[in-house]
Amino acid sequence: MSRHRRTHQDGERPDAARPSSSADYPRRRTHHESAPAPEPGWRASKRSSKLGKQVRRDARAEQRKQQLSDGLRQTKGRVLGVLQIVGMVLGGVLVLALVLFVLALGVNAGSRWLARREAEQQATPEAQAEKARENLLIIGVSGTSADFLAVRLDSTDEQILGIAIPSGAFMEVPGQGFERVGDSYAAGVGVSLAAISNYLTVPFEHYVIVDVGVYQDALTNQSLRDIMANAQETDLDDAQRAEISEFIASVTGDHTALVPLPVKPIDLGGQTYYEPQRDQIADLLLQWWDVKVGAQDTAVRVIIYNGAGTPGIAGEAAQQLIAAGMRVVDTKNADRFDYDTSMVIVQSGDAEHGEQVRAALGVGEVLDQPSEQDVADVIVIIGRDYVPPAPSQ
Description:
alpha/beta, Nucleotidyltransferase, domain 5, Alpha-Beta Plaits
């Protein structure tokens, strides 16, 4: 207190005499170091950090979901694109296949139509007569049996071509069934002409009958020069005989081919029969007469049944159909003989075949009854309405 008073007594002002300084005013203070205060917003930052992590996790999950969705969308687009391309390719293939199928149907239908038209044209009497114009059947007679030489007088290429058919060859004889062709002569020359024409599918309308010795000499010498001079019977008129004789004389030996019919000998009860090997003469028929054998044969195959009871009437109908260019594979009796109307039953092939048969016979009711048999295209049952054609004079 005294110090303070003295000072005041000296007249000094406390505030002006000494500067205010902490050094000058040492004060006794007790200093307590306190813990640093937490940064402002710490708890909020912690909470925001957790929220941020959740937000980031959600964002990443959403991003992954979006990426997955985008990937699926792109994959779907690619798959759809591929499927679209595949569909277009398959559609194109299907359209092409359909077009080819339609074209094939058209070609097949056209081929069948052309084949039918060709068969119809070849079945006309004019076509048959033209095809038979160069054909001649030479018959070597021995008693009631005969051997045959089916000849083509080819004036275009100036050659003579012939197939010798022995009497013992088995084939379909109209009205007699499957018999020795030599026995057909006993039923008449017309039956023999029909049998040979039917087997070869080549029309023969004219014939010359000679002794079997003359026939054998012709085969041995490979020449027909003596045939016309030794004819016992023929349906040729004088002009035709002279024309044929002149042509035969003009053909040299190297342009004459008279070959035997390929046959397989069969011994039955001490008698020798011959089974013709039709497949082996296919080339000859194709080259010499342009006749196609087998599946390519366009001739309509017919089985004829006698349903009228008149003896020999099936054979007469067979001759009529053979003359029309059809092939008769069998003739026999029907199950009964009281058919009033002839029946033309189409079992395979086109319905036009039945119409061709009906047109050739002049009568018949055409029926369509498909069958799995592959022997004949048409079955004919001759009824009482059938009238055989008058014999040609």
